[in-house]
Amino acid sequence: MRTGITLAEARRLVLDDAAPLPAERMPAEGALGRVLAEPVASPRTLPPADVSAMDGYALRAEDVAGASGEGPVALPVAFEVRAGGGAPRRLGPGEAARIFTGAPVPDGADTVVRQEDTEAAEGRVAVRVAPPRGEHVRPAGEDVREGDVVLPPGTRLGPPQLGMLASLGRTRVAVHRRPRVAILSGGDELVEPDARDLSGGRIVSSNGIALAAQCREAGAEAVDLGIARDTPQDLERAVRAGLFADLLVSSAGVSVGDHDHVRPVLEKLGCHLVFWGVRIKPGYPVVFGRFEGAGPRVFGLPGNPVSAMVTFEQLVRPLLLRLAGHAHLHRPILEARLGETLTKAAGRMHLVRVVLEREAEGFVARPTGTQSSGVLRSMTLAHGLLVFPAEAERLDAGAAVRVQLLDPDVLAPPEAGF
Ligand code: AMP
Ligand code: MG
Predict the structure, then answer these.
(1) Which of 163, 186, 283, 402 has a 20 to 30 A CA-CA distance from 56?
(2) Number of Cα atoms under 13 Å in the Cβ half of residue 385
(3) d(CA 233, CA 261)
């Protein structure tokens, strides 16, 4: 087991041998946010035929080559073609067909003139423009050609991709399975959120709720196993209950206290511990392990609510995204100016909870207040985590800093701006 490693090493150890979970087939309409596990090739050409992009008249461009506002060219209207319909026959030279948006352009025609550029009367249409050949015609295959791989494996399915699947006639797709996470909270002091008696040092367990929400936000399924007592027996019972999952995330009990039983219990059950201790603040006492064979990967996160959430962000979330097949595993980084001078001792990277404010020259990052890892409120305020590098001891007000963005809404302007 490695101890006291950097965040970058820990991330590498977590992600290095993690591959996307196997595929499952599901209805495409329910696959929002999933990642494709197969290439999707088109069985058809779209649009299947040349179609009109306008309401107007289909004709041959050469028949109205000399037309203008002063000298319109009149053509007989031979027939009408509606969206969803077809032409009764080929359009002859010197003829026009009434046509509507989305209707197939009849054979013999090569161009559509907008209704606004014409005048119709008594079975004839006077055309006031000389359009270039092909105007207002959407050619067959403009969107997709039969056999095109339209969506490669690894594509994240958002609204446009679901729309595309529908237009290809794909009602079922193979996507990576969503990771299943079992969440466990450990501590004799913990009570459920509906408890009213907080005497005797009882503390409401918030980690189970917050960590499950983080899992779900990352597209995983979360099962809250509840609270385990600080005894090896109860912890063992709870860990066994989580062995079905892809990932077991427990919080608290991973320090070096007399009642921190997580590590020995995991080892007793056959979990290979990969590392313990990551040189970041908040969140040093993190353990990561793996059950050989079919068992889950395991994280033992620190109990302090901020440490639990911050270490989840750094190590658990990227793993969940990788397991679900995503290509982008990390939060965006925003460059900002530091609003006030920060100091610390060298040795551990600090992830400083900051509020971001848009000012004339860009974003300014200011700490949310006390950086104690028990202050959950700071997480409700933080837009991001400022990266205060391990060996740095001082960052001056005004310095350029990097902020890992937790709340992308902070980038949203107050007005649309265009
Ligand atoms: P531990 O990691 O067990 O030393 O716990 C560190 C701190 O986190 C203690 O103050 C615990 O009371 C607190 N804590 C542990 N688990 C939870 C939880 N599920 N919800 C909120 N606070 C917790
Ligand atoms: Mg504890």
Answers:
(1) 163
(2) 23
(3) 9
